[in-house]
Amino acid sequence: MNARNGPHRRHLRHLVRAAAFAALLTGALSCGPPTDAGVLRMWTDDFSFRVTADVMPPRALERITYTVVVRDIKTDEPIANGEGRIFATNADRKTSHNGFTYGPEVGTYRATITFVTAGDWAMGIQFRRDSTKVLQRTHDWRQQVRNEAPPGT
Question: Which among 69, 86, 125, 126 is most buried, taking Cβ atoms within 10 Å?
C-alpha cells in the first residue's frame, strides 16, 4: 500500500464521514415546529398583534375564543385597556363579530365568535388605544371552518 491509500487515511475518512453524519443528525433532530406554531402575526401603523384560537381549525356552530396580544409597534410595550373587535364574513355575507374583553394578562384581549356555517371566512381585527383614537384595521386573513360536529360528540 502506498501512503495515499494507507489504513490511516481510510480511518480518517470514516471519522470525517461519521462526524458529518452526527452533525447532520443532530441538526435534524433539533428541528421541530416553531415555538409559536398556530400564532397569526399582524400589524397596523401603531400596533402588532399575535392571534391564537382555542380550537384550530374551528368548527361551525361552536364558540371559538380568540386571544389577541397587542403591543405598540415602536416601543414593543403591551397596550393596556384598549378597545377593539374581531369580525368574520363568509361568501354568503353571513357575519360574526364580538368586542374584546381585556385581561387578565397585560396587553391581552379575548373575544368569542361562532361561525354559523362551514367554509372559508374572511376575518379581521379593529383596534384603538382608547376612545379618542381612530380604529386601526389589520389586513383580512382567511379562516377555514370545518363542518359542525355530529350530534352527541
Answer: 125
Q: Report the C-alpha gap between 87 and 121 in whole angstroms.
A: 10
Single-letter amino acid, residue 56: M
pLDDT of 85 > 80? The answer is: yes
Q: Taking the model in full, what pTM does it have? A: 0.75
Instruction: Compute CA distances 140 → 29, 45, 62, 88, 89, whole Å.
Output: 36, 15, 22, 9, 10
Q: What Cα–Cα distance (Å) separates residue 80 from each residue in 2, 32, 50, 139?
A: 76, 33, 15, 22
- What the block records as the C-alpha cell of 52 is 391564537
Concatenated DSSP letters of 88-121: EEETT--EEEEE-EE-SSTTEEEEEEE-SSSEEE
Per the DSSP assignment, residues forming a β-bridge with 122 are: 89, 142
